[in-house]
Amino acid sequence: MYQTYIFDLYETLLDIHTDEDSLFFWTKMADLYACYGAVYDPEEMKDMYRKFCREEEIKTKKEGITYPEIDLTAVFERLLKEAPSAVCVPYSIASMKRWSGMIANTFRVLSRDRLKPYKNVLETLQKLKDEGKRIILCSNAQAAFTETELAVTGLTDYFDGIYLSSDYGGRKPDRLFLDYVVKKEKLNAKECLFIGNDFVSDISMAYACGMDSAFLNTYRFDEETIQKEIKKIRTEKEILIHVIQDIRELPAIGKGESRHGEMAERRSIL
Prior knowledge:
270 residues; alpha/beta; Rossmann fold; 2 domains; six-stranded parallel β-sheet; 12 helices; 10 strands; 16% strand; disordered C terminus
């Protein structure tokens, strides 16, 4: 039934938690920038970071894209170059590109307290690959640190294509992002299944592109909530919205063999 499986990443395949608001986090970031001569008060740095993010979003917005996505490395460079005060340090940065990439990964590590694949993820991806299916990643993510997180969690090699919003310049739920992936990979949307944990960013986007989807209930919503969200999206019965509780259900759904998957389809069509 499905030849290509397109996945969201965070909270679908990877269980992650970050905190970019804590004083401890911004104190550490301010300490790090001081090593390179840029002096900040922690709260001041947080405010500048958010201001630069907003400004970069305006600058990078492409024609037709409703939800622009920035490359955070540009923000980290600006935080260095536009610091409110500076001190001389006894060395210089040889490569700004490499430096901003290092800062991006440090930013992520300091703000992150959990990162691991959900149970059964690796085994299911391997099963799909063994069956000859194509596996694509389409995620709202920053390439500067997401590529590292894919590598350290053992996910990179499972994907036949990796598409991140910071590279594209737009983010989900903008259907243009998924349209771009379909075109780039020369896919038939009718032969694809999009898997995600968010009704707005994932399921509604796939639906707008005429693509079947599977809502993976990692947040453990109750059945009433799920059906309410599906009814907000559905206008055509031909496009299926599966509901699954365990990623191991995917191979069977793809073959049309899953009793749970068939029941989910019927409920979704109502």
